Amino acid sequence: MISQQTQWHRKHLLGIEGLSREEITLMLETAASLREVNRREIKKVPTLRGKTVINIFFENSTRTRTSFELAGKRMSADVINISPSTSSAAKGESLFDTMKNLQAMNPDVVVIRHAQSGAPWFLARHLDCAIVNAGDGRHEHPTQALLDMLTIDDNLPRLGRESFDGLKVAICGDVMHSRVARSNVLGLTTLGAEVRLVGPPTLMPPAVEEAFPAKVFHRMEEGLEGVQVVMMLRLQRERMEGAFIPSVREYCTFWGLTRDRLRRAAPEAIVMHPGPMNRGVEISSEVADDVERSVILDQVANGVAVRMAVLYRLCGGPKG
Ligand code: CP
After folding, report:
1. Where are the beta strands (DSSP E) in 21-121?
2. All residues at 6 or more sequence positions from 40 whose CB lies less than 8 Å from its CB, including other chains
3. CATH fold of 21-140+300-315, please?
4. CA 88 to CA 67: how far, in whole Å?
5. Which residues lie with the beta carbon below 6 Å from any ligand 1 atom?
6. Which end of the chain has fewer CB atoms at under 10 Å, N or C?
7. How far does residue 277's CA lie from ligand 1's centre (Å)?
C-alpha cells in the first residue's frame, strides 16, 4: 500500500518519465485523500477558488476531458473548455499563437491533449502557467497511468500483496500506438512491478526490449500466464497508416481477451482497460462486464480523483 510522503516540486506534469517513486506515491496519496469529495452529496470544496484551468483538447476525449472539468469544478476552480473545431485554430491559428493568446488571459493551468508527441513540452517552454499533458500522440498519458496505478493500489489486498514490488502486470495489444502503455510501463516499473508487453510483433515499437523495461511476449497465452493484472489496450486504427494486422477478425481470434484466455492469469487477476473499448475486438463483453474481475469503471471513477490531485499539486498544494 501507499505509505511514503514527500513534497511536490514540479511546475508541470508532462509525463511519467523522470518521476520518482516518491513523487508517484505522493500523487496517488493525494488522489486517495481527495476522492471522498466525489462521494459527498455536495461535491464541492473551496481548495482552488480563484484559480483558472483551461482544457484544450485537439483530439477527441470522453473520460479525460470530462474528469479534468469535474476535478477543477469540484475544487471550485474556474474551468474553461476550448474545442479547436470552434476556436480560431480552425481558421489556421498556430498552436503557439493560440496558446500565447490564452496565456494573456492569465490561467493557472493549461491541460492539453494533442496528436503531436512533445506538444506539452513545447508549451511548457513558452508559457508561464503550469501545463498538464492529457495525452500527446503515441508518447505519454501520465494522468491515465496515475489513475491506473491508483486502481491497482486499491486492489492490492485482494491480490494478496502489500506493495507493487514483484506484482506481475501484462499490458496487451496495440503497444506501438499506445501512450497509455508507455506511461504505465514507466510508472509501474518505478513502483516495483514486473511488466510484460504482450502483442503481435507488428504492434510493438521498434527495439521494444531496449526501449522499455519490460519482457515481451508474442503469444497471448504465454504473456497472461500467472499475471495478477491484465491491462488491455485499444486497437488504435486511427493511428495506423499501414496494414498492421491481417484483419480485425483475426486480431480478435489471437489477441482478444476472452473468459477462456483469462484463465491463464492468476485466479484473482483483475482486468483493466483505459477506454474507449472496442468490444469484441481486444476484449469480449463477457470479460469487460464481469463485476468480479473487471475494474474498468473504477478506473474512470479514480480518474476524477487523480485529476483533482494533479490540479491541487500544481496550483493549490504546498510546494517543496
Ligand atoms: N482513456 C482515455 O484517455 O479516454 P478518453 O480518450 O475518452 O479521454
Report:
1. 52-57, 78-82, 109-114
2. none
3. Rossmann fold (3.40.50)
4. 25
5. 61-64, 135, 144, 274-276
6. C
7. 10
Q: For residue range 145-163, what is the model confidence (pLDDT) as tens digits?
A: 999 999 999 999 999 999 9
Query: What is the predicted pLDDT for the residue at 3?
Result: 43
Domain ranges of the chain: 21-140+300-315, 142-295
Whole-number Å distance between alpha carbons of 299 and 194: 20
| Identity of the residue numbered 283 | I
Whole-number pLDDT of residue 302? 98
- Give me the residue label for grid cell 469503471: 297
What's the 320 CA to ligand 1 centre distance in angstroms?
31
CA 92 to ligand 1 center in whole angstroms = 26
Q: Do 142-295 and 21-140+300-315 have the same topology in CATH? A: yes
What does pLDDT average to in each consecutive run of 10 residues of the chain (320 residues)? 67 98 97 97 96 97 98 98 93 95 97 97 97 97 98 98 98 96 98 98 93 96 98 85 78 95 98 97 97 98 98 79
| CATH number of the domain located at residue range(s) 142-295 in this protein | 3.40.50.1370
pLDDT of residue 316: 79
Closest ligand 1 atom, residue 141 Cα: 3
Residue reference for cell 498492421: 244
Nearest-CA residue for atom 5 of ligand 1? 61
Distance between CA atoms of 184 and 201, rounded to whole angstroms? 20
Which grid coordinates belong to 152?
491497482
Mutate to test the pocket of ligand 1, among 58, 61, 282, 283 (most ligand atoms within 8 A of CB): 61
- C-alpha 274 to ligand 1 mean position (Å): 7
For 112, phi and psi rounded to 5 degrees? -125, 135
Q: In 3-state terms, what secondary structure has residue 250?
A: helix
Index of the ligand 1 atom closest to the CA of residue 303:
1
Do 191 and 21 meet the contact criterion of CB atoms below 8 Å apart?
yes
Cα gap 318→39, rounded to integer Å: 25
Residue ID of nearest Cα to ligand 1 atom 3: 64
Q: Which residues pair with 52 in a beta bridge?
A: 78
pLDDT at position 150, please? 98
